[in-house]
Amino acid sequence: MSKDKTLGETLQERGVSRRSFLKFCATTASMMALPPAMIPVIAATLEKLRRPSVIWLSFQECTGCTESLTRSHSATIEDLIFDTISLDYHHTLQAASGSAAEHAREEAMQENYGNYILVVDGSIPGENNGYSTIAGISNKAMLLEVAAGAAAIVAVGSCAAFGGIPKADPNPTGAVSVSDLIKDKPIVNIPGCPPIPAVITGVLVQFLTFGLPELDQLGRPAAFYGNSIHDRCYRRPFYDKGLFADSFDDEGAKKGWCLFKLGCKGPTTYNACATTKWNDGTSFPIEAGHPCLGCSEPDFWDAGSFYKALSTPTEDIGKTAVYAGAAGLIAGAALGASLRARKQSAVKNHERVTIDDLDQES
Amino acid sequence: MSGPSFERGYNALKEEIDAPTAAFFSSCVHCGMCAEACLFFTETRDPKYTPIHKLEPLRKVWKQEYTFWGKLGKALGLSRPLTDQDLADWESLVYDSCTLCGRCSMVCPVGNDITYMIRKLREGMAAAGHAPKGLIDATKRAVTIGSPMGVKLPALQAQIRHTEKEYDVKVPMDVEGAEYLCLLSSMEIMNFPEYIGSIARIFKKAKVSWTLSSQAFEATNSGIQIGVSDIAAELVQRIVDVAEELKVKAVISPECGHAYMAIRWDGPNLVGKRFNFKVVHILELLDELRTQGRLKMKDKEARKLTYHDPCQIARRGGVIDQPRNLLNMLADNFVEMPETGKMNWCCGAGGGVSSNERADDLRLKTFARKKAQLDTINVDAIVSACSNCRIHLEEGLEEYHMELPLLSLTETIAEHLAEE
Question: Is A351 close to B3, i.e. CB distance below 8 A?
Fold first, then answer.
């Protein structure tokens, strides 16, 4: 496949029908909640696109994000996408190894300098390079080097986006997220542990078609992360009625009531699981009877027990409560004493009011 | 003495602010529900009559003297401190358009006792010289003459002589060791002397040991209404002294609303000690006599009656069931007005409003509410137990061209007493 061919030409060569292509465009448009009028725009843009070069760097990660992507059941969509880009460097997926692999990366960087897309999964360890190196290069050095020539960066997975599990307390490697290190490039975060495959591909399509998508305050594309799981959950009516499962095998659980009391983090988690679902739209954790872990939110690993309701404190607040109580008592007593003194002085200043003190004239 | 001054008024407000006041102001949610509970708002629809708004000067002092942000704002010149003009501007809101009826306190969703705070605000208003002329004069008469209406002992003695002749009863005076010391309101002596004859007849039949006092016959307390605790305490003290001197077991508050509140609820706090006698309202005593079988009726009242609850007796005093027990004993056809008992609507003249001529038009305007209540039940007569309510209701009925007799509950009972 030549990199100079447009996507349209590539697809024709590969025998993808125009009908399948438009179906893909329509699906993508609906996933991003775009009006149907945008379908031809997506199609036209994608058709004319030259396959952009993509460099995929994996740092402190578990390969789950790549697994998510490759194990997707919606093969037509994902294959399509991966034929639309030129994935020039990806540890797990590329055939080359050793210095040949690094050579591919360097060549892709040189050829497309300033124009390639950098995808990162995994967090980056801190000062001690020993925690994670690739071909003798520290993760941080490699990230800075590749990021310098990138048009934009996509941080896939919670580790790249927020530090994820490597950053979990006590964070032995000093892990940080991509956005902690790179400040001068547009970064799109696609958090999740792992992210939904269709969301990864959807964001890439959106990116190729319209440029940088609209992001929320955590750098996530609003099209996929705009609603909480809770707001879109099919069990929401039970929450509204106050019907909860209290354990995993009680009557409520069997009847499919709300899992809030079992620790569901749906109300504070923004992701598309409840609508896009997993495994080709088969199900998602809550539908399978398990509370949402909140994996697409920062520091989800440290947000208390997965099985404690959101309304319970995440830490042992005993001491804090005692100190706060004591401080409150002291402050309250001091304030009370000062106000009482103020009032006492008013009482002291009281002059007895007699009937001669009532008239203005007297 | 130094006379009234803004400084004295301001100091009085600082002095009056206590923990409940601070809690009330902090918890006000500005819902405005008190407006719909207030006679002066419902009959005028003027938002300035919203009860909590009437407290603005007191709220300002609380905020600027006792809260961090208020003190900071005042120090930085961001909020204007209270001025004498503010108090002058609020005078008519605090005295003319509040009868201390307490209905707003009942509806407040956070439990703020607005009436309690109006009473406190009046302390500052009076000390700053912003009390209404009519109330100042009444207060002076109460202190110097012994009655806000200027009734002196000879006038009472004349009424007693007249009563003893007419009803062939003895009205005991200054009897040491009597069980009850009976108090009167000036209005009863001057406008409704039948009250004296009524209690004399009832007590004679029921064999109640009682007495009047030549030293302290007046039950009303202008100090409460104008908002000067020093004077209110002095007036209460006169009664306490006599009650102790005559060694009575209990003091009877007459058919008057605020007199009951003054002696029963505020009294011990004003003089700063527990009474060594009980205080009962005449209706409480009558109902007690009824349950003891000491009240025997010769016949029943044929007219269709309703009862107007005086605010200080019912809502602020808790004497709600007793008049109803008595009325059901007295009449077969007793009906309630809509919204009675603790939620009754004030006549419009309590809390010193009737002593304040400036408020005359306003209080007659507010009578429309009572008229609307009465229009729904179509009765032959109204019964009440407060001579101030009674006088104002009569004026209101006249103003609205309604022909309805107004009866005193005590007097009506006396008229139906069984013969020996």
Answer: no
